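Internal ticket #5521
Category: modeling
Description: The requester needs a full-assembly model to guide mutagenesis choices. All entity lines are attached below as received. Residue total reported by intake: 1262.
Assigned to: D.W.
Attached entities:
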Amino acid sequence: MSASNEILIAAERLTIDYRADGRWLNAVCETDLQIAPGEIHGLVGESGSGKSTLALGMMRYLAANARASGRVSFDGSDLLTKPDDAMQRIWGKQIALVPQDALASLNPSQRIGDQIAEVARLHDGLSASEANTLAVEMLRRVRFSEPEDAARRYPHQLSGGMQQRASIAMALIARPRLLILDEPTTSLDVTTEAAIIDLIRDLIRDTQAAALFVTHNLGIVAQLCDRMTVLYAGEIMASGAVADLFARPLHPYTIQLLASLPRPTHGTETRLPTIEGVAPSPTNRPTGCVFAPRCPAAIAICGTKPPVEALDGGRLIKCHRWREIAAGTLTLEAPPIQPIRANDAPTAGYTLTTRDLRKTFARRGMFQRRARLVAVDDVSLQVRARSTLGLVGESGSGKTTAARLIAGLEMADAGTMELLDVPLANGARARPVETLQRLQMIFQNPNDSLNPYRSVGATLQRAIYRLSTAKLSSAEINARVMMLLESVRLPANYADRYPSELSGGEKQRVAIARAFAADPALVVADEPTSALDASVQSAVLNLLKDLRAERGVSYLFISHDLNAVAYLADWIAVMYRGEIVEEGDVEQVYNPPSHPYTEALLSAIPNPDPTIKTHRILLNDDANGAQVITGCPFHPRCPRKIGAICEHEAPPYRDAGAGHFIRCHIPVDELTVLQTSAPTMRTGQALPRPETP
Amino acid sequence: MTRYLARRLVLMALTLLLTSILIFALTQLLPGDVARLILGREARPEALENLRIQLGLNDPVPMQYWNWLTGFVSGDWGTSFIGGSAPIRPLVLERLGNSLKLALLALTFCVPLSILLGAVAALREQKFVDGAISLFTLAVVGLPEFVTGLALINIFALGLGWFPASASADTPTLGELLRQLTLPALTASFVLIAYIVRLTRAGVVDELKKPYVRTATLKGLSRRAVLVRHVLRNALAPTITVIAISFGWLIGGLVVIENVFSYPGLGRLMTAAVERKDIPLMQAVVMVVIFFYAAANLIADLLVAFLNPRVRLE
Amino acid sequence: MFVLIAIFGSTIAPYRYDALIRGAARLPPSVEYPFGTDRLGRDVYSRILWGARDIVGLPALTTALAVTFGAAIGLYIGYRGGWVDEVVSRIMDSLLAIPALILALVMLGTLGASQTGIVIVIVVLYTPIVARVVRSAVLSLRSTGYIEAAKLRGESTPYILFRELLPGVLPALIVEGALRFSYAIFLTASLGFLGLGVQPPSPDWGRMVNEARDSYAQTPWALWAPAASIALLIIGVNLLSDGLRRTLRYEGTLG
């Protein structure tokens, strides 16, 4: 944190428009943003808020069809007026970018070392060998365990985490004064993300660079950033010190955003606060306050644009009513936590049982070595009646494959499945209509869940028609369509709309309606909210909860987002590399004793409370997925590995009581002791990190 | 990489084999009695029968194929049916040489020019230069060779007299070679240029949109450096493949051009063979053409694999 | 871009003009005829108009057939995958390894030069190309959510192929079809030039060009009229297909 009043870079009334379909649309509207030397500034917003455009605009990188007005002061001059060749001296040397998609941002046919060294040769005039040495040194600083080896590799040979580290090395090699990071961890697993965030924090402190960190994840901002700016629909809503904004949010948008983050519910049937409505697209931005249409505190004056006002401590706010909020006369309480109308309590029995499911993928191709990947390794699951089982894991854990096996989209190589105590055939084609009625699926990507050439009504009609055993008249089918639309809280006239006219959240609702067309007993939900914005996620999660209460359906809920899982699920199973390493109810899994992987996973989630600095367990980057690992699959990365036994023997399932199982060589009592002696801490010292193997 | 090479070689051999079977099967369907064709209509039945036995025409078809295949592979390409039983191999090889000369000349004209034009068009995308180039290629790409060929003859040979109206294969010196073959090579080039320019342009345009180009720009590299050092390597893969395919076409597919310019290449040989139902000759020509085509494809694939580390390190 | 379609439209209008033609009778050479007459005394203009039907109709028919077969094959193997895909793709690759004209020559030699022969040759040549394009479009659509949802409804394979996949594949198919049409015209004209197309006295444009070469000195127009017509037709079709490609925003193959 810088103590001086210097400003490194400042945007004044920066406006960026872009041209599409013959019209000029506004992406960023008259935004002010200042960053001091050494400051880590978080830029928060949802998709479509214009945050990436703003960040790139500040380094004067604009798309070919964009134009900017305003001023960006850097080093005493206005970047917006500089021509390209002048900017070429600044890019890479003074200001550098760490982009979101590391793999796509690296030249696929150039070695990593060469790409990194190129920057040093260009800006610092180093010779080829000097630059190469420096590149290797940078790779060491970003914690590659074998930097010389890495430097000779090509981007596709590295894992996601390693690619991003290489990107960071490339950005920092010329010691820029400002680093712009555009959602650098969004596409990474949570555990990898934790390691990268930690690395970024350390490197920025060491190099004393300033950073502009663009993200939609409030947890990261709370843990990493000094100051932040909240952006909505291209306009600044609030900005200031992170501690201030989290402790005393003054803007209705900020308040509601913080309130809507999913948190563990600890058993009660509650609803998440949501922000009603959808963010406006650039073509129909409101003329007054951009947030007014969705703001519960909107009044008449909000039809005009609020001024940007400055408060003490360098805080900015853009709202007509902030004074009332600050004074406490206006409160935006979340609606009182209403228990959802629950039908009968969960009944006994199991909706779904699987035993020893196995799926191996072999690499095809003539004359090629057959590499085998065991995606799902003897997985046995149970989904209790009228309850939700959350299946948690990161990429490569096999959770999606397991879900697809159950749904019938892939054929299992071994194992059995039962639905409502009736054996479930392997593969959807072998299943009779009655089975298909009872088991349906919701997919991750709402944008390709629906046939773009069919109207919503037609899609639902087809589902109803195909999945019914009785002969339904078209009037009956239409009535059911209306009923389904209503149950997912969509207006009846949506039946005539096409998917291209719907937002992401609305498309997902239609997909949910389609899954419920035949009143299923089990719905497999594969990361249904991962592709949605934060403000929409809560609405969809609420909907799923409601439907569960109304219809008595069970869910198999796949996710990598532990908080969402904790909100929706009753029971959790944690998967790693094709195996279930822990299962239990939400309370049991979230608290010690836990499997070491679960422990690391939980600690890696950035906590959206800046006063709580969680001690994060950092794992090495994931090993190459194709390697075969004997013994416990987690042993190469496990911080609690006890020795050779972990490498050679598969760990046993240990019973931790009341349906809680942990698969580890360490006995349960010992785990409890080990894990409770390193609790989270309030602001203050961080514990020294345990040795990473 | 070696594994990749081995795989491709095997595939190539398989393709050749498959194609030879295909061709052989087709020729078997040719109507008309071969023996009668050779000896003429007045031949006596015994003579016909003798000839048939001699040519192996009475043997079962698979055996005929096998005989032919073994013969072909060992260098014995048989003798042509018509025209006094001339041995096929020297005939085909001579024509092959002619075709090769023409092919290489055409390639030299068109490859550097098209890549240049394609890259320029991509860089100035949506601007005037791009539009002009695109229009030109669109207009030219579909014109049959005889149209362009005849037009060129009209202008340059008959009109200006710079080049002869028909190309001869007798080219003792390089100068003479250029004089004889420029027009036909240009004609062939026209089609290819249009095609390659469009493909290169599309490839470069696509590549320029990729995120790593932004990274390169934001490293501070000049536009030219970005293009030359980063983009071109990755953008040229489809272009290379197409150039290889074109080579195959240039060897055996120039039937029309050879006709227009009366040039003794493989294409005309093939036409003659088909007209006279000269089966061994047809088979030989086809095999040669396909060999070059497959070889060119192989080289192109290897080149692309070389440029693309993903494949190379498999 | 619709201007281009208009250009194409006006190009083709007079060519479809065969209803009002004077018969393709032999008339004495005279310059008063729009395109003159050829060496046998036939009115070139009429012959062109009559020939238009063949040079547009025949390629249109073959393209339609190739597109239909190619789409069916491409849809099926793209969706099924597995060894069916491998085998069929290899066979098609073998077919494509042979340069078009050579194969055409061989086949026509076998089948005899005739309209049917040409149709068969072009369909055999172009079906694999269309199938390839369709197959790759299917491959990219195969794993979308709505296709999987269809599987979960127990939809039959033909249903999935034609009601769910085909609409997504259609833009690529249309663009490729237009391109194939252009090449079909090209090929038909070339074959005609070589004498392998429609037989005399039918007015095949390609053959007209070839026939006019001998008497070029006296009747240059007899050569240029059909040649220029072929050129204009192809350019028009190309512009049309390019316009289509831009409207549908799809690249397609370029060959």
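Resolution: model delivered.
Comment from assignee: The interface with chain B takes residues 59, 61, 84-85, 88-93, 96-97, 99, 101, 104-110, 118-119, 122-123, 154, 156-157, 167, 170, 366-368 of chain A (CB under 8 Å).
Ticket closed.
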